[in-house]
Write a structure and sequence with these properties.
Layout: H1 3-15, E1 19-25, H2 33-46, E2 50-57, H3 63-68, H4 83-94
Parallel strand pairs: 1-2
Helix pairs in contact: 2-4
């Protein structure tokens, strides 16, 4: 659950503390319109204290570490999101007045 993370963001906003939000875009996990709309609405509720959102595309750079530790890599078969998906999510966030780095 991200309950405490969201509570902390609300707390920072209540204090007027500026912040950046990082959002990892993982295909089939966090790349859908509903997730982006929810994020945009939440950030809009926080107000001007959110300076920008960093949209971070999922990558497979750490996959070998899981294998080396003998662990199952739960995202096996998931590949980085396409540029078009990243651009689409950016458009959704921008529609809420969010500034993004992507």
């Amino acid at each position: 659950s991200n309950k405490y993370t969201l509570e902390f963001a609300r707390y920072l906003a209540s204090r007027g503390q500026t912040m950046w939000i990082r959002y990892v875009v993982v295909p089939t996990w966090s790349d859908d319109d509903e997730s982006a709309e929810g994020l945009g609405q939440f950030i809009a509720e926080l107000g001007d204290c959110v300076e920008k959102v960093e949209l971070l595309p999922y990558h497979e750079l750490g996959k070998h570490k899981w294998t080396a530790m003998g662990e199952k890599y739960e995202l096996d078969g998931v590949h980085p999101p396409k540029k078009e998906v990243m651009e689409h999510l950016k458009e959704i966030l921008v529609s809420y007045g969010v500034k993004t780095n992507y």
